[in-house]
Amino acid sequence: MTTLLDTTPASGPTLSTTLVEALRNAILGGELLPGSKLRLDELREHYDVSLSPLREALTRLVSDGLVVTTDKKGYRVAPVSADDFRQVTALRLNLEVMALAESIKRGDEKWEDALVATYHRLSRLEAVDRSGDKLPAWERAHRAFHITLFSACGMPLLLRFCNTLHDLGDRYRRLFLATNSPDRNVPAEHEAIFNAALDRDAERACEILRQHLSRTGANLLSVLPEAGTPSGQATRRSTRRRVSPAAQQ
Ligand SMILES: [Zn+2]
């Protein structure tokens, strides 16, 4: 059982927000498998919560595209497919790149400071072995870096779409690129995007980000089954799939 209340300070995020994050992480990391039925009783017991915050959390994840409703008022983890991934990648290539360009144009000193801090954390984690227990910290740092890159775009709606698309794309990477062999120097790409953003060179930063997303997209499509994905009755996976550093984008 995961007791969320123990980790939710009174002045911090609400229980529902904490629950959303816990469920999001379980879906992104593949602990909750694509297409699997989300049994409310099991989830209530696992997270030690009542039905109301659980339904609220699931509704938020439906709007983020990570959970779908069924015709019997139930919930499933959103399925995955090659077509869906192509759509996610195409949107990321447009919206994340647009948001980065705007961010570089509008970002103030506070944004620069946040970018320096998130890149510093990411590069420190990329300098050492990122597998096993160290992987969740890398995943958090990687997400924070990418989201900070476009966070100063000044358009809340665009920012929301970019956050959602980043998570949708990340789920595919974490689920399907576990054994892919390295074909590029990912830390060097992060460094190049960071330097170009700090130099306020939007054209260069956007071009490297485009390459960063495109290559991962191509790698993923080469291993993604065209005819859909396994869905099963099991709602939780007992062991986390180990993702190699090569899979990281
Ligand atoms: Zn990346």
Task: Based on the coordinates given, report the CATH architecture of the largest domain.
Answer: Up-down Bundle
Any idea of the CATH class of the largest domain? Mainly Alpha
Q: How many alpha or pi helices?
A: 9
| Coarse morphology | globular
User: Gap between N and C termini, in Å?
Assistant: 32 Å
CATH superfamily of the largest domain: GntR ligand-binding domain-like
Question: Total number of β-strand segments?
Answer: 3
Report the helical percentage: 55-70%
Fold and architecture overview:
The protein has 249 residues and is mainly α. The protein has two domains: 4-79, Winged helix-like DNA-binding domain superfamily/Winged helix DNA-binding domain (Arc Repressor Mutant, subunit A); 82-223, GntR ligand-binding domain-like (Four Helix Bundle (Hemerythrin (Met), subunit A)). It has helices at 15-28, 40-47, 51-63, 82-106, 109-126, 135-150, 156-176, 186-198, 202-223; strands spanning 37-38, 67-69, 75-77. It has a three-stranded antiparallel sheet. A hairpin with a 5-residue loop joins β2 (67-69) and β3. α4 (82-106) packs across α7 (156-176), α5 packs antiparallel against α6 and α6 runs antiparallel to α7 (156-176). The two termini are 32 Å apart. Residues 5-11 and 228-248 have low confidence and may be disordered. The structure holds zinc ion. Zinc ion (ZN) is lined by residues 142, 146, 190, 212, 249. The site of zinc ion has 5 residues, from α6.
